[in-house]
């Protein structure tokens, strides 16, 4: 035994578990056959932390074949159960290199050990292992068969082909008489998000023992029969099955809330299921079960019973289901507006605010009712409610509301002032004559502030008059930077050479926000020259970034020329600004083909930046481009030193459904040690491509 | 045990650090600091070391060059290093000459474009800008009621704080020490914390933060018919002075005039200007024959 091995062995015999755990890490440094022996010793340790550490060390050992052989042999251990279980963990950690030996061992192992081997194969995303698991569905031992069915629920990690094969095998296994195997198969089909016809699940949905699992597995199907079955199951006598149905139907609705046909079928079926409706209402009130509550809210939304509106309002107050409650109200439609406002009257301020905004956004709602509620709410003392009411007023207000909104523009609370400004602008663009009247009558202390907002809105609908431009030019010299900024925005909206001339000097404004507004305005006004100067001064990354974007609006060719050299800038903030600007040029519908190609080149060049943030940004902008070049660069990024870059590359490659992309991901999965990146790769290779529900005949059933 | 280094207080500006900072300020802003300025520089910048928790001026030099908030720190440093003392209608005789003799000439030159632009380069807290605007308004040569003339008086300074103060334009009593009483009564009104120029004059005035050595920034002003750069060149070294004057020349319309402080001249700096003798003053003028210069300017 080498000295190193002897030292580790001595340490592994110490009484203190922490000393043994630390010693385990040294096993990786041991050369020779002793390493596998020491590993097995550690895997059989009394302390779980030592065993866990040993499992993690397994993939780091040399002489892999010997190590794997020892580990596979340990699966047959009958005395030290801890060793046996730790060997499973270690083999999974070793990954693909453990698959061959594990598969070969299956005929030699007894039933208990075969079950463990099946667990190993389920933990490693490898097509060979998945094929073995499919064969194991016919194992002579019932426990092995069930374990194989459970393990096949992970088949998506081994690629689309494995997913499809596993789905077929699991569907076939449903013909068994073994109830546990059927349960495992149905559960795995749900995990594989199998899109199968309802007719496959229907027989099992009638079986009291299997019903729950069949219902869950059917959630992937959007067939009317499946939707009806799920709706009916919400009234199941078994609370567990009813809950499962509520969750599944909720997920189905949330997956595509604009699928009118599916919604209509679900609604009709729910209306014929009084028990199901009652169950949905109960679940929608249960704060302990957020998943069921979220599903139930959507069911109430499509049922459209005004008696349920208070339930939806209550859910708007719960952060966990707020989004679902919001969607439920939208699914309910315009008829919800009145009851919604009524129910929310005594709710918490932020819920009242949300209700006002929601009611105002419901197309077809009775505007007069909503408007009146909004006007009343403007007089409340709660800033939350006033902000919500102001936002809602933008949608439902009329000419008479311009003055109401104007009275809040100078509010001391910034949020109120900003919301009022937006609302005023929205109203003024719809009611230009009233806006002009307000402008004339503005006998306030400072008419310039209000004038800029009103003129900006008016300019969006019709050309401004000379007098208007003079007012805006005066406002550019105002002491309040907010007024100067509003004037710049209005001038940008007005357009024209005179407006651009007036805005140029604002680039020298001492306030950063005003400079940024001027930069954006000049972009919109098509005045490229001063922007080039701003881009050249890279001391302020935010300004540079904004100027680059604006330059993209004004003159894409010059924007590209200015941004391209900055992609390699040592300051990551500047490089990111340039990359972002180039990304914007690529996505611009106005970009000429030669610009798009040059931008793409620049983005690929940015992948070589030393800063991970710059690389990530370039990656995200390159998105899921197809072709060998993209594949090669994304593949290279899978080996990037930064885990975060590898994660993003994995996510993007996951969107590429080509076998080559999937192969790159799986190859990296074997080497990847970072758990977050591993998770991302796993998710990427299991992402299901969109497609129709497969017909049994297409699947060879 | 060694004592933690102090921040700010007690730190001295060593000769080598002085040279580093002097060269840096000169390169970036053109501000010139002779050997006699060392202790003044130390005194003025010391508070920045305290704020930034730096223990030497060498660290401060590094911060100005590479610090994460270097741009903001430049504003702070410049505010501390520049002198802002000025008042309304300073060097009144020159201003009168400008109003009575130069403005009529400029009106003739600008007659066809009907646009008058005046730039106060290095305007400090804005007193000069408002003084010029009052004189233009009072001259009656450039009526604006029917938009006959488009008049702008631009004020720029390198100091952010000065520009903000200029924009507010509210002045205390001491700023009015050279303002004729009738002028004050007619063109100024009480405001919170002092007096300010009346709205019709104020709206002629525009302010911006401009480093005169930054060519891109100076272009934002556009072309001017008159440039006031009074008591500014004295802060620059010879090289920077030459650059600034070249910039001002470029920014002037042909026939436009440059007004310097009484103690300043273009001797050994530029021969491009011609001298214009007024009754009570001497100003520099860009020759009318230099028309081609504008046509080649890309910022037009």
Provide a compact summary of the structure.
With 701 residues, chain A is mainly α. Helices cover 70% and strands 0% of the residues of chain A. Chain A is globular.
Could you tell me how far the N terminus lies from the C terminus of chain A, measured between alpha carbons in angstroms?
58 Å
**Main beta sheet of chain B, described?**
7 strands, mixed
Radius of gyration of chain A: 32 Å
Tell me, what is the CATH class of the largest domain in chain B?
Alpha Beta
How large is the share of residues in beta strands of chain B? 15-25%
Secondary structure: helix percent of chain B: 40-55%
CATH superfamily label of the largest domain in chain B: Vaccinia Virus protein VP39
Mean pLDDT of chain B: 87
Q: What's the CATH first level of the domain at 195-332 in chain A?
A: Mainly Alpha
Instruction: Count up the domains of chain B.
Output: 2
Number of beta strands of chain B: 9
Shape-level CATH architecture of the domain at 195-332 in chain A: Alpha Horseshoe
Cα-atom radius of gyration of chain B: 21 Å
Q: Give the overall pLDDT of chain A as a whole number.
A: 88
Helix content of chain A: 55-70%
Query: How widely separated are the two ends of chain B?
Result: 66 Å
- Spatially, the strands of the biggest sheet of chain B line up as 5-2-1-6-7-9-8
Task: Choose one word for the global shape of chain B.
Answer: globular
Quote the beta fraction of chain A: under 5%
Structural class of chain B: alpha/beta
CATH architecture call of the largest domain in chain B: 3-Layer(aba) Sandwich
Could you explain how this protein is built, in words?
The complex is a heterodimer of chains A (701) and B (300). Chain A has 701 residues and is an all-alpha fold. Among the domains of chain A are: 195-332, Leucine-rich Repeat Variant, CATH 1.25.10; 398-525, Alpha Horseshoe (Leucine-rich Repeat Variant), CATH 1.25.10. Chain A contains 43 helices and no strands. Chain B has a seven-stranded mixed β-sheet. Chain B has a two-stranded antiparallel sheet with strand order 3-4. The longest helix of chain B is centred in the middle third of the chain and has 18 residues, at 92-109. Chain B is globular. Chain B starts with 14 loop residues before the first helix and ends in a 5-residue tail after the last helix. Mean pLDDT of chain B is 87; it is low at 1-5 and 292-300. The interface between A and B is medium-sized, with 24 and 29 residues.
